[in-house]
Amino acid sequence: MTRRRDSERAPRPPAYTVVIPTTGRDTLVPLLRGLAHGEGPAPDEVLLVDDRPSDRAHSPLTPPELGPPVRVLASGGRGPAAARNVGWRAARTEWVAFLDDDVLPSRDWPARLVDDLTGLADDVAASVARIDVPLPGTREPTDDERDTLALTRARWITADMAYRRQALIEVGGFDERFPRAYREDADLALRVRRAGWRIVEGERVTTHPPKRGGFFASVRRQRGNADNALMRAKHGARWRDEAGEGPGRLGRHALTTVAGLAALALAAVRSPKVALAAGLWTGLTAEFATRRIAPGPRTPGEVVRMAVTSAVIPPVACAHRLAGEWRVRRGRAVLFDRDDTLIEDVPYLSDPEKVRPMAGAADALDLLRTAGVPVGVVSNQSGLARGHITPEQFRAVTRRVDELLGPFQTWQYCPHAPDEGCPCRKPRPTLVTRAAEELGVDVRRCVVVGDIGSDVEAALTAGARAILVPTARTLPEEVELARRHAVVAPDLLTAARIALGLT
């Protein structure tokens, strides 16, 4: 038999890491055992992210012995978005496969995942699996089972989704302002697509057993309305269409709630119009309950549960949405210049090995992240237009900055030369306004931290606040400008404290 030449050999299977956020549920053990005995190339590593709050994690997770190495990390109970960020940032491979801790991959899942990833174009950021929810064949599904069944229609479900690590770096990973396993995956996918990446559907199939909730599980799910408020702020009023979601029922819930409150108020003053308001509330509630009861098993217990929760859900949904809108309106962000603010300025920096964080940068960023404030970068990079830096070199430097100081929820940079007359180069405000839009934060509640006058001017022109942290190259007139119209801080940590209102 003739030996094939190197150029004719099959491509090497892509290396991948599996990240599993967990709170230590019983479903974790069969998932890990399934991965251990799977057919196909094993993961480089399995990263198990313990998302139990620190005060509740009395004993460390002890996964069973597996084929691939398992490393346990901790995310401190900050939710699945934060746990996934901890996981992918610790991964060392190009691809990161996210699995929920209650799914059951098929025996050939490793082989099918590798098949899905092999040969993908460079502009493909992610491969999403097909989700199968096994339901009883002897009856119609319950409300809880229908809720799980909706995962099979979700466009970008991270119950099983593999992302290219570079894409995660470019968009800052998951937005940790989403505290639940809800909308954080759609938000990430929308941001990735807007950054110019594609997301494709793979051939692998993963089983997600139906959820089993208590009597008021559907009421508790209404907390997701607060997350919908953040989605609207970040992606606009038509985010549902872009994410492949239906229109939702918030409008009807609001009408039902208003009718119920009006009936109570009219009854309190003994108005004859109380019957009209009460009739409207009854009709809307009955329609909602019927819509939920009809596709189910219609057992006595399920009918009672649907009837009771259908009366409770509308006001609860509205309350959560109002709370979410309030949090969005009060949201804030801090945006940093890159060179001589976050990292030492190296003219036309193209070598990631030369990235050196500025003194206090890590501490300032840690302080802001601990306070739940999203952070971003707004930077002029004319070296791209001038040919001193290639896009690949720029991405390599960005990866290194992220490794040392990340994650950043948004990267906004101007690739143009000063004489091109572009709208985005600082001191013009476009980088600042773009960052605010991507974060879903009112630009007036953003703070821009930089080291020269153009950073201050960009912030003020956009309507944001500005903090100048002078360096040796900061001109005296720039410091004077900041003293008159902004704030001058001696170091980055002080700037972060000022941004948080602590100083």
TrEMBL record:
Residue intervals of the Glycosyltransferase 2-like domain: 17-137
GO molecular function, one term: metal ion binding
Pfam families referenced in this protein's UniProt entry, alphabetically: Glycos_transf_2, Hydrolase_like
Record's keyword annotation contains Cytoplasm: yes
GO cellular component, one term: cytoplasm
Keywords: Carbohydrate metabolism, Cytoplasm, Hydrolase, Metal-binding
BP term (GO), one: carbohydrate metabolic process
Entry similarity comment: Belongs to the GmhB family.
Protein name, per record: D,D-heptose 1,7-bisphosphate phosphatase
